[in-house]
Each structure stands twice: as structure tokens, then as C-alpha cells.
Amino acid sequence: MKFIRLAIKEIIGMFVDDGSLALLAVILVAAVTVGVKLLSLPPLVGGILLLAGCIAILAWSVRRATLRH
Amino acid sequence: MTGGFAPSCQSLGGVIALRDEDIAFSKETAALQKQTDDRRADYLAGLASFKAVLLEGAEVVFIVIAIGTAHGRTFYAGLGALAAFILIAPTGLIVHRPLVRVPENALKFIVGLMLTSFGIFWTGEGIGADWPGADPRAACNFRDDRGGIACCPLDARRRGGVDGGSYR
Prior knowledge:
The complex is a heterodimer.
Chain A: H1 2-15, H2 19-38, H3 43-68
Chain B: H1 5-12, H2 21-34, H3 40-70, H4 74-99, H5 104-126, H6 137-158
């Protein structure tokens, strides 16, 4: 059982290095998708928001690491 | 966005120490060798190999699905992946020693940048965005990502990151 928990933890760790960054990226994609599909946001605007949002999230993650170190 | 991309930005900006794969491999090997009498070593060795192969295998599956299903050619995309595996396996055996000299952190940064750019491009296409310029737009995303990220290492160095930052 301990081995299974360890294996699951390792597998999740392979895909998610920074949990906050991953969560924010998922939230951003979900928000843009909802905006485009349900709120009639123009898809190209959604794409631009996606690009700007990803850059902002990455910059925030690097800045957070800077403050931590 | 790949999870390893943010740490590669941080290491190139001098915020955290650069990752040295040689040292990491030596540490893991030493840890396993210490436990040769312990039955857990069998599980650890199996787990280490399982991790590496599972991650790369999952990437191959995602790529084949992404490229193949877009045009209904999953079989041919799979054949392409198989051909690449047949080519890369013996190549890796031959060149694995010189490959240690490849600057890993810069390589991870570039690969992360490319994956992020393509990911944004394909996600945008998935929600119906008609990117101006179509496929070459992915290269522009690469440039935009790079521009946005280039500011971060400079900012980190201004704030006094780890040993001023050095590129390998």
C-alpha cells in the first residue's frame, strides 16, 4: 500500500512540478473556454487572453520563486 | 505549460541552482547501491525506470493523438512515432556519453518554450480561435513567450538571485 502511494505520488510529480502554476493554468484555460463557448467572447480574443494569461502566470511563478529564495 | 518550464526559467535567471543531470544520476545510483541488501532497492530501481519510461511514453501518446486525430491519420502518426523510436533507441545507446555535455538547462528552457507556444496555439485553435497567419503564428507565440520570460531572469538577477546566475 505504501509502495502504491509512493508510485502515485511519483506519477503525479512527473506532470505537476509547481502545483500552483498548474492549477492557475487549468483555471485560465477553463475560464477562457467558458468565456468563448458560453459568454460569446470572440475566439481570437480568447486566444489572446490565453497567451497573455500564460505569460503572466509564468512571470508570477518566477517572481514567487525569486521572493522565496 | 510544462511543469519543468518555470524551474528552467528560474535556473537560467540565477534564482535556483542549475540542474546537473550527471550529479543527479550519480546521487540516485549511489542511493540505490547503498540499499543493495534491502529488498526495497528492487522496488526503487523499478520505480525509477517506470517513472522515466512512463513519462516519455505518455508524451508520445499525446503527440500521436494530437497530430493524428486532427486529420484522421492516427495510424500514420503512430507509424511515425514507431519509426522515431526505432531510430532513437540505438542512437541514444551510441551517443549517451557525449550527450551529457549538452547544456541541459538551456535545452529544457528552449523545449519548454516550444511546448508552451505550441500548447497555447493548439488550445486557441481548440476553442475556435482563427490565429492570424495560421501555423506560423505558433512561431510568434514562441517569440512572445520568450519576450515575456526574458524579463523574468533579468528581474531575478536585479533582486540578487543565486550566485548571480550563470548560463551553462
